[in-house]
Amino acid sequence: MGSELKYLAVLAITVVALLHSTAAQETHVVGDKFGWLVPPGGHYAYEVWAAEQKFSVGDILEFNFTTGDQDVAKVTKEAFDSCNSTSPIELKTTGPANFTLDTIGEYYFIGTKDRHCELGQKIAINVTAHSGSPTPSPSPKPSPTPRGPVTYVVGDQFGWIVPLGGELAYSAWAYGKTFYVGDTLVFNFINGTQDVAVVTKAAFDNCTTNNTVAVFTNSPVNIILNSTGEHYFTSTYSRHCELGQKLEINVTAKSTGTATSPSSPTTPSSLAPSAHSPAASGPYNSAPSMINGSGYFVSFLLVALAFFH
Ligand SMILES: *[C@@H]1O[C@H](CO)[C@@H](O)[C@H](O)[C@H]1NC(C)=O
Ligand SMILES: *[C@@H]1O[C@H](CO)[C@@H](O)[C@H](O)[C@H]1NC(C)=O
Ligand SMILES: *[C@@H]1O[C@H](CO)[C@@H](O)[C@H](O)[C@H]1NC(C)=O
Ligand SMILES: *[C@@H]1O[C@H](CO)[C@@H](O)[C@H](O)[C@H]1NC(C)=O
Ligand SMILES: *[C@@H]1O[C@H](CO)[C@@H](O)[C@H](O)[C@H]1NC(C)=O
Ligand SMILES: *[C@@H]1O[C@H](CO)[C@@H](O)[C@H](O)[C@H]1NC(C)=O
Ligand SMILES: *[C@@H]1O[C@H](CO)[C@@H](O)[C@H](O)[C@H]1NC(C)=O
Ligand SMILES: *[C@@H]1O[C@H](CO)[C@@H](O)[C@H](O)[C@H]1NC(C)=O
Ligand SMILES: *[C@@H]1O[C@H](CO)[C@@H](O)[C@H](O)[C@H]1NC(C)=O
Ligand SMILES: *[C@@H]1O[C@H](CO)[C@@H](O)[C@H](O)[C@H]1NC(C)=O
């Protein structure tokens, strides 16, 4: 009885939401293909992901995770900030778990297991009224607009390090980014603690870093991508490669339009103007960086949390 009422209430809310928004209800899979996990890059990953979404009343937030490994709790802002999972508003332990965004405002979610929240499994989103008119919100996907060369800072503010999350961290970073001939990769690190080794696929796969194409030791290392195809980067430092300091990217020929003048390396117009960390020096073209084995090297990458579309 009680549950029936609850069901009806949910149904009613849903119907109202649907009527309210003639536009289609959208389902946002948190972290896209990486799902809901402890992101190797820290909470930053889900921030990036959320910044690229437009949440409207009536939309569904879907947390995709393996039941038992993760859970998701809707919490207050205070609990979110302090990672307090003592008395969540709502806790869901079976994945995937859906939350319908039925009101305008801010929503906060955290993972309550172990130290998951402290380690970055948390996300805050802001739901706005459904914009009736199709103001194509920063349509995140590819319009093949020609663009000038772009400079990518590898690992963004984390730079080039042995990532906490293992090798998926840099594949997550690269995920969703498009690399064209003429673009530049910048590797930032502390001199004497890292280096950048350009290697072959075999050396990359095997971490046989005594066999390199080139090695650069002075930060920052700027590498202009001057040929198409796959490019492999790692480190000659002992065990750095095995621990995940490795980046594989696929460079494609410049799309159609020859970019006019190699003007400022702004973010491609096809990408959402990201509102992420102002301190970040690199263009966050897209990807949320996230990681899970399944998304590894899906051609494209962290932070966090990011794939998709
Ligand atoms: C959820 O994750 C599983 C396993 O990775 C995947 O097969 C499934 O497609 C994902 N669901 C969604 C909606 O992304
Ligand atoms: C966590 O939240 C509970 C309930 O809101 C509160 O009683 C408790 O003091 C909080 N713990 C911390 C460490 O803030
Ligand atoms: C979550 O929402 C998606 C999209 O509407 C739906 O396909 C899926 O079945 C829902 N999952 C659950 C557990 O309700
Ligand atoms: C959410 O959006 C409202 C209205 O646009 C804004 O006032 C508020 O600061 C936003 N909150 C966050 C956390 O961004
Ligand atoms: C290294 O990679 C090559 C080519 O991929 C492979 O044939 C070889 O067995 C690998 N060596 C080791 C030690 O894994
Ligand atoms: C690199 O080291 C491996 C063993 O660690 C060895 O088999 C291989 O011959 C070495 N390659 C070069 C070019 O020295
Ligand atoms: C690394 O060393 C090079 C050459 O000595 C120097 O130009 C550069 O500023 C150093 N970078 C950092 C981050 O210390
Ligand atoms: C491509 O770049 C590498 C190093 O960045 C350089 O050694 C090589 O000569 C360049 N090739 C061409 C064709 O410019
Ligand atoms: C990654 O996804 C696979 C399924 O594709 C799942 O079995 C695994 O537990 C996930 N890893 C993490 C860390 O969530
Ligand atoms: C790299 O891109 C080319 C052309 O788009 C494609 O044929 C190739 O399969 C890609 N390689 C990888 C590893 O994704």
TrEMBL record:
Region described as Disordered: spans on this chain: 128-148, 254-278
GO cellular component terms, semicolon-separated: plasma membrane
Signal peptide (UniProt feature, chain positions): 1-24
Gene Ontology terms for molecular function: electron transfer activity
The protein's name: Phytocyanin domain-containing protein
Any single Pfam family the record assigns to this protein: Cu_bind_like
Coiled-coil intervals: none
PANTHER family associated with the record: BLUE COPPER PROTEIN, PHYTOCYANIN DOMAIN-CONTAINING PROTEIN
Ranges where the Phytocyanin domain occurs: 26-129, 150-253
Organism: Rubus argutus
Keywords, sorted A to Z: Disulfide bond, Glycoprotein, Signal
Comp. bias regions, Pro residues: 135-147
InterPro entries for this protein: Cupredoxin (IPR008972), Phytocyanin-like (IPR039391), Phytocyanin_dom (IPR003245)
